[in-house]
Amino acid sequence: RGAAPARGAAGALPGATGKVAIVTGASAGIGLKTVEGMALSGRYRKIILAGRGEDKHRRALSGLRRTLSPSFDVELEHQPLDLGSLSSVRAFAGRFLAGGSALDALVLNAGVMAIPERRLTEDGFEYQIGVNHLGHFLLTNLLIDAMARAGSPTDPGRIIVLSSSAHQFPTALGRGDLADLQSSAAYQPWSAYGQSKLANLLFAYELDRRCQERGLPLAVNAVHPGVIRTGLWSSATAGGDPLAALLLGTASFVSEEEGARTSVILATRDRGKLSGKFWVSGRPQRSIDVDPLGGVPGPLRALLPGSLLPKFTSYDADTWAALWRESETLVGLRPG
Description:
Helices cover 41% and strands 15% of the residues. It is an alpha/beta fold. The strands form two sheets. The protein has a nine-stranded mixed beta sheet, with helices on both faces. It has a two-stranded antiparallel sheet with strand order 10-11.
């Protein structure tokens, strides 16, 4: 379906022959630019664009065919995937695995942002946590054994998780509280978005920890691509959200090419062999870790209620593990 071969890869990297990648949300924006950069690297012989909408993917493939010169031999293919449907995720993974192909890179790029009204996925999850986190969580778990078989200690498989600086928004999850992952108590579009992006980040950290524990040859990293004026803003501004309007008026936007740059680096360069990092502008950076009472002496701190100035952190391994277990239950990988 939708194959668009472009020819001959001059200057392919050592060991590049036969490498296969999947990129979600690649019909436009930074996802499409990520596919373009990966194709131009010469590292991959096949890249699957996974997402909804056959027509828009056909247009994306036609544009890529025009962009890539005849010297690049890479097969580009669209396969349908709806991350808001666990059955669609399972069907996509089943088709891929049935083909017997190796999988060398998985770029979890698709996402939705700040949907004005609370809505649910096919499986009853709040839409942002469902699409941004749970769909990708299930997809990765279904494909991880195939990736582990393809990787090696010197050339690990690459799992790249698109998070966001919005993971820093104050949310219950940032305090280690998983009680309202579905944002049902009091839905706020940007809070729900920030929580989903924090879930992406914590998922990446826990997946890296588990891969290291099992000795799997996989490098797992999370990325903030920058603020890009893509189609995601259409949902964020649809309800006249004043915060969205403020961000549109004050944010320092980067181009789609710049937004894709870090993902392309991690998918194609030696830097992508590092693992368990949060990347911004091509470099690892610290993610959220704020303790307002960090400078308060222990005895005094013990007298203050924790709810007074709560700690917000992405480095609590217990929260990583708790989110993983809850996610397993929600997507049906663990009995409820």
